[in-house]
Design goal:
The chain is an alpha+beta fold. It is built from five helices and four strands; from the N terminus they run ααββααββα. A four-stranded antiparallel sheet has the order 1-2-3-4. Strand 1 and strand 2 form a beta hairpin. The longest helix has 25 residues. The model has no long low-confidence stretch (mean pLDDT 84).
Amino acid sequence: MMENPPHSEAVPETEMVSQPENVRYTPPPKRTFWQSPGAFYLFWFVSFPADQLLKWWVVKTVPLYSSRPFIPHFMVLSYTRNLGSAWSMFTNYRWSLSIIAGAVLLGLISYERRQAYIRSWLESIGLGLIAGGAMGNLMDRLRFGYVVDFFDLQYKGHNIFPIMNLADWCI
């Protein structure tokens, strides 16, 4: 009869699973809606249509390259067409900017799916707004070849910041 070597002795099952009596199972903390994928998608799917509706409204009500008062002494609606990105940089790089925006969207969706329940509420909301803003400007570039900008911040009648849109603010 063959003997088992000393290192392969069978350990009784009761010894293998025994735990100290003072150790208790603690369930993981409950996540709120704001920490779930729902918050990401909610802010994405609210910011994107809001941006598109505002752009549609401005195009229908404000003539191109003209302004209308919106908030006295602070903001006017100035309908412009931006062929580039922020501050009109990279003008006429429509397809390059579209590819970058598409890659950002895919990256955000991939990140959201992998990190779905281990994030803060602020991160969920922020990523949703970035996705909505990127999609809003991407849609403009693909449909028109430019981005519709209209929010013009002013101080004493002078521009204090480049003309932007809701998607830019979300980003």
